[in-house]
Request: fold
Amino acid sequence: MQRSLGVAVILLLCMYSLMPRVKGCNPSLRPSRDSKNACVATVCSKGGTCGFPCHCVGNTNPWCNGYCTK
Reply:
């Protein structure tokens, strides 16, 4: 029982340390749509691309898609 509890605590601590790095998962960080640049606020997955002049942000985490921003 204590061994399982120890493994669970270690796993939760590892997950907790990863969560602040999940910027792409936080929808409040995504910019609103821009009528001048159609690529802004679109979703880009890992290795995804955005149209010019945008770039993909927040797609380094394997659990989250990123978003395009200028």
